[in-house]
Amino acid sequence: CRHITENSGLLNHLVPGDLVLADRGFTVADSLGMYCAELAMPSFLKGKRQLAGEDVDKSRNISRLRIHVERVIGMLRQKYTILSSTLPISLCMHEDDDQYAFVDKVTTVCCALCNCCESVIPFE
C-alpha cells in the first residue's frame, strides 16, 4: 500500500489540513505529514482487552464517515457500470502526448456527474 500511495500521484493532490481515511495497517502517516495532511484510521486493540472510551468514540466517528465514502463509491459503480467492468489494458495506458489515461478521464467525468446527484448523506 505504501509504495502504491507514494508513487500514484495521490499525495500531490493533498492540501494542508486534509484528512485521509484508511483501514488499519495503512502506514503512510509520515508521508501524509509531509503534505500537512492527517491519517485517520480506526483504533485497534494492540494486545489490550478493551479500547479506551476515547478510542471507541474516535473509531465510531471514523466508521460513520467511511460509511458515506463507501456509499458514494457504490453509487458511482452502480450508475456508471464501465467502472465495474473489466477494461482492456489499452484504456489504462496513457499516450505519450497525454498526461492522463482514458480510464482516468472517464472516472473523473463519472465522479463529476455523481457530484451533481442528490447527496448520499441525509440532511436533517
Tell me what the structure shows.
- Helices cover 45% and strands 5% of the residues.
- With 124 residues, it is mainly alpha-helical.
- It is globular and about 55 Å long.
- A two-stranded parallel sheet has the order 1-2.
- α2 links the parallel β1 and β2.
Q: For the largest beta sheet, what order do the strands appear in spatially?
A: 1-2
The biggest beta sheet, please?
2 strands, parallel
| H-E order | HEHEHHH
Shape: globular
What is the percent of helical residues? Answer: 40-55%
| Beta content | under 5%
Structure summary, number of beta strands: 2
Name the structural class. Answer: mainly alpha
Mean pLDDT across every amino acid position: 84
How many whole angstroms does the radius of gyration measure? 18 Å
Uncertain regions spanning at least 5 consecutive residues: none
Distance between termini?
A: 37 Å
Q: What is the number of helices? A: 5
Provide a compact summary of the structure.
By secondary structure, the protein is mainly α. Helices cover 45% and strands 5% of the residues.
Itemize the secondary structure elements and their pairings.
Layout: H1 2-7, E1 19-21, H2 29-33, E2 38-40, H3 53-79, H4 89-92, H5 102-115
Parallel strand pairs: 1-2
